[in-house]
User: Fold this.
Amino acid sequence: MIRVNNLCFSYTKKPFIENTNFEVESGEIFGFLGPSGAGKSTLQKILTGLITSYRGSVIVNGEEVRRHDNGFYENIGVDFEFPSLYEKLTARENLKFFASLYNKHRDIDKLLLSVGLINDADKKVSDFSKGMKSRLNFIKALLHDPQILFLDEPTSGLDPSSSRVMKDIILDEKTKGKTIILTTHNMYDATELCDRVAFIVDGKIRALDTPRSLIMGRGASKIAYTYLDNGREVRTEIPLCKTSEDETLSRLLRENRLLSIHSGEPTLNDIFVELTGRQLQ
Amino acid sequence: MRIGKLLMGDVHFQFKYGFYFIYFLFTILYIGLLFAFPESWRQKAAILMIFSDPAAMGLYFMGAIVLFEKSERVLDSIAVSPVKPLEYVLSKLCSIGIISTVVSLAIGIPAGIVTNPITFILGVFLCSCMFSAVGLIIACKTTTLNQFVLATIPAEILINIPAIIWLFWYKESWLLIHPGVSMIVLCAQSGGAFPALIFLFLWTALFVFIACGAVNKMLKSVGGVKL
Ligand SMILES: Nc1ncnc2c1ncn2[C@@H]1O[C@H](COP(=O)(O)OP(=O)(O)O)[C@@H](O)[C@H]1O
Ligand SMILES: [Mg+2]
Assistant:
């Protein structure tokens, strides 16, 4: 669906995105995970044809993006980081207008219903809260039933329930066979939604794999337990795979002396820090 | 037809954002003013009004419309839609051109200057499109209303002064190559309508062409790269 070969781009003379290569399969949710300023939105702008002064090759839906014609956009839906809506028109008027620019469109009421905006459909967008605008902006990207969806930080700054609604719709679009490119600095979203994740720092891809292998391939799962030793609480951490070799643990288990025991996997954030030396937030 | 859909969108936008209300107020104001003039002045005053305002509304209203679209980031969405720059430009020009023509007829008919409705309508419509195209070009390159208004001053002078000179003092036929003059000739039916139409059309086409380039650049700049 998307094939990027030796992509180079910079806003300035200083190198930024350099010799980047990756592919996204049809029907996949592919995540760009990285801290603010890493170049996620820039990559998305290149993939959606808004930046054409790149070097290398970027093929989206069979077309070299630099040379796209306007039919290119019939099959691409873009949800920008910030709402792009007519503030003085109602939600429905906005959707109707944008839908009218495309050849095919979905049922507007169903979309409004899916994000819980049906009762606000005839309110002006200027009266909407931030979360409502984000949800409206999000379904605007789905209006023409595009084959590829580009979502730039779709859940950023949203309350948990709005964010849940959006994530369910994203997963739903995937079951319909859509290819989805998701940009985020939220490791939970990336872990939950993405089939594969690319770690991005300073315009470079530092790692690319499924969230599962990234987590498993690095720091193995661990066990942490606490117990009392001469009246002092002691905390110990061991790898899960070394459980049987830990004599202390076996003894504590036999003697019922454990105060607490937890197993835990490293989070994507831990892996991100380990691989890139950067924090996500 | 996408351009029809765009045009409906533009008309709807102008209605919702209160532009039609302003058009309406202007029309009332002009007609009132017109009848305050003595009979003998009325025709020239009407032509001047039709030339300088309803037709020129395009310049300022276009600025306001595009700056609204910029500030609400709507252009980002237009940039990733199948809309072509020419469609965007023509739709914007027609939306204002149509209302300008209606307003001009509302002023021109009571003033008794509409002797040939066809040349009158063509003159006003083309002239409005030309002004709107100039407004669009300037709006593409500016980001605030102040910048925009400042940048329209030279355009206003270049388009208005020769037309006013022609209307009041200096009726030499070579001035016809000026778009403002050819518009007045078309509306006022003082002969030479055909060459006037050609010149006005060529000017309009030229500015539409430049406006397409400016819109293309503006939509591309959504990506943040100066081309
Ligand atoms: N239009 C622009 N012109 C110049 N530099 C830019 C522009 N947009 C973004 N940048 C710079 O490029 C880098 C990446 O930005 P961006 O892609 O928006 O990051 P992210 O989306 O990962 O937060 C940042 O350092 C930012 O300052
Ligand atoms: Mg970003």
